[in-house]
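Entry for erythose-4-phosphate complex. Fields follow.
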Amino acid sequence: MIHKKKIFSKIFIDGGDPSETAKAEQLLGFIDGQTTNPTLVANNPIVKKSLEKGEKFTKSEINGLYKKIIEEISAIVEWSVSIEPYADLKTSAEELLSQAVGMAEWSSKAWIKLPTTAQGLEAAKKAVANDMRVNMTLCFTQDQAAAIYAATKDAKYPVFVSPFVGRLDDRGENGMHLIENILKMYEKGDGHVMVLTASVRNFDHLMQALRLRSPIITLPFKVFEQWAGKRFMLPSDDHISVPSQLTSIPYKEISLDKHWYQYDLYHELTEAGVKRFAEDWNRLIR
Ligand code: E4P
C-alpha cells in the first residue's frame, strides 16, 4: 500500500469486472474511480460466459446487467464511475443526451462518456448545462481537447477528457506526447477540464503519466498488477522512459477562446473507435 497523498494523479481502473476493482482496492488501499466502455462490458466474466454459450441479451437485459456492474463498482470506488451510452456514427446529440440522463441515475458517482464528435460535443454542452458530469472519450488531438474545453466552459463539475495513448502508439505515434501537449495547452485555461490518461497499455505509460502529473490515469487491471508487483513505485521527476521508435507529436499553439465548432474535430481514430464500440455493443444483443 502507498499513502494516497503521495500520488498526485487520481487512480482509476479501466475495466468491466467489479471483482478486479475490489482486488485493486485491497492492494492499493483505495481506488478513486473506474472507466468502463462497451468492449470492457463485453469482457465482463458473466457476459463473456453467456456469449461463449451462444446466449445473447435483449437491450433491456444488457442495460440491466451494465447497471448492476456500475452499482457494484460504485460501492468500491471513492469518487467517479464512467458509463458509456450506445453511440454509432448516426446517433444524434438528443439520443446521446436522453441515454445520458437515464445512465446518470445509475450512480451518484456517474460521469457519462460521450464521443469527441460534433454530436458528442453538442450533447456535452447541454449535459453540463444541466449539471451532469461528462467524460469526453476517444480524443486523439489537441484541437479536439480545445473544443472540449470550449464546449464545457459552464460546467459545474470537473469535465474529463480521455486521450487514448495506446491507440496512437499502435499506429506508430507517441501517444504520451498528446497528454503532455494537452496539459501544456490547458495551463492557459481555467482548470475545468481534467486530463484522464486512457488506453494505457504498459507500465511505462503509467510512469510517464505519473511523471507528467496527469490529473487522472485509468489502468487496465494487468498494468495495475504490474505496478502492485513493483510496490507501487513512483517515478522520479527526471524519469526517463524506455527509448521508443514512436514518432513525436509536436505541440500546437491553439487558442482556447474559440467556439467549440470552430476547431477541427475530425480524427479517423475517433470514428473508428465509435464504430468499434458500437459493434462490440451490438454483438451482445440478440
Ligand atoms: C477508457 O476510458 C478507454 O475506453 C480505454 O482506456 C480504451 O482502451 P483501449 O484502447 O485499450 O481499448
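NOTE: The radius of gyration is 18 Å.
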